[in-house]
């Protein structure tokens, strides 16, 4: 089932954690504004035009090199922007190659000061990317070299040095060198605090993570839920203004939203910090239990606890959110929390209570006269009833969800509820109705949406007259990738494109491509990017919500 109720859906993908973000590409003291090409590339990425965005960024960098020369700041800045675009797309190897080449350009004392500034950004971003990709020692070495160069270039009390120290502290955290990380982070905090710099909350949040990891490491049992350190968080926050405290909390929530789902270490660490932070915020005159930042902190902590399998704590936090939503009169939050509570109780093995709260979510959504939330609540109820074997009730709930979704005017929501209803009706032998629902769902959903993959797999099974199997889901996934590749490849280049499963489930699919003409210029490079991105996009879509072969 799709965990829509308590998840924090974030548009776009942030890269390189707090250091680089495509939407706010901090240039560490650099005065050059974003280039027109980068702004255009970002707009293209926002509309899913990946190849066009990559091409714009690459051509802008090549043009800058031809026009200004390799050592000119405009060329170095353009390479940074090009690497940003590639990293945003998850093309980390390509981003690293771009930054390596830029870092290899030799500067001399006569070069423009701006060129030397850009070099500092290149070293920092390259070191961070290497760290992110697991090349921890090389990343650390580059970041340490960058800090030394920044200290010489900027001086001991400049934010440019603090940025380098913060990135180095992140690298130390990733390697478990916590005392070294705290030393670097404390230096960054001192510089930023003395300047009143807006990046101070980021460094303070990193300090909390380093301390939390140190305590977990000292205990030798990361699963324990003891406080970060007796009174550490209260004493830490007491030194801060309310405004800084809120900003630090926002940084922690941002980190929690970006946490890698497969890595329990940062999940435990962030849960530990939030466990200690929330009581402090609750007792603060400025915040209190019903303040937005505390409510969002509880939602984030509930999600982290879910990832750790601690569903009892998850249930407790969501119950508190339900109560807060009722006190402040936020009906939408209440509906979301009720659906999240039902999911959590299901995972805790208490289906009867889960059923009660899901029905309450439906009732509150109906009272709110909001068809979007009513459709989601009814859909979740229908999926639950289907899993419990209550067929007629499931069909009724999902049919009601379809009507509400139509009233909402939301195409994706409409596709999702139609998929769920079609799948249930297919299982019940109502094949004609199922076929109509699945066909309409496919018209409304993007090809790589997980529900579209599910609908396509079930539609194929209907044509055969049986129930879908794993092969149907695999073929539906491949069809989505084929459609995206054919739509985005250079015009007239591909005659035929196909994928076949690898020898084992863990193996990547085999690709077969037949070209209709000789490629021109960089078209082979573009085609490779299109294929990689289509595969990664489809896989990420499926992971984001639920396995493609189930109803989410």
Write a short abstract of this structure.
By secondary structure, this protein is mainly alpha-helical. Among the domains are: 199-308, no CATH class; 476-552.
Overall description:
Helix content is 70%, strand content 2%. The chain has 552 residues and is mainly alpha-helical. Among the domains are: 199-308, no CATH class; 476-552. A two-stranded antiparallel ribbon has the order 1-2. Helix 2 (50-68) packs antiparallel against helix 3 (73-88), helix 3 (73-88) runs antiparallel to helix 4 (92-103) and helix 19 runs parallel beside helix 21 (450-464). The longest helix has 23 residues, at 523-545. It starts with 35 loop residues before the first helix and ends in a 7-residue tail after the last helix. TPR repeats lie at residues 415-448. Keywords: TPR repeat.
Low-confidence stretches: 1-31, 541-552
Mean pLDDT: 84
Please tell me how large the radius of gyration is. 26 Å
User: Order of strands in the sheet with the most strands?
Assistant: 1-2
Q: What summary fits the major beta sheet?
A: 2 strands, antiparallel
* Structural class computed from helices and strand pairing: mainly alpha
InterPro entries: NLR-like, TPR-like_helical_dom_sf, TPR_rpt
Keywords: TPR repeat
Pfam family, one: TPR_10
Detail the topology: elements first, then pairings.
Blueprint: H1 36-46, H2 50-68, H3 73-88, H4 92-103, H5 113-132, H6 136-154, H7 159-175, H8 178-195, H9 200-219, H10 232-238, H11 242-258, H12 264-283, H13 292-307, H14 311-328, H15 331-347, H16 351-368, H17 371-387, H18 391-408, H19 411-427, H20 431-444, H21 450-464, H22 470-488, E1 494-500, E2 510-515, H23 523-545
Antiparallel strand pairs: 1-2
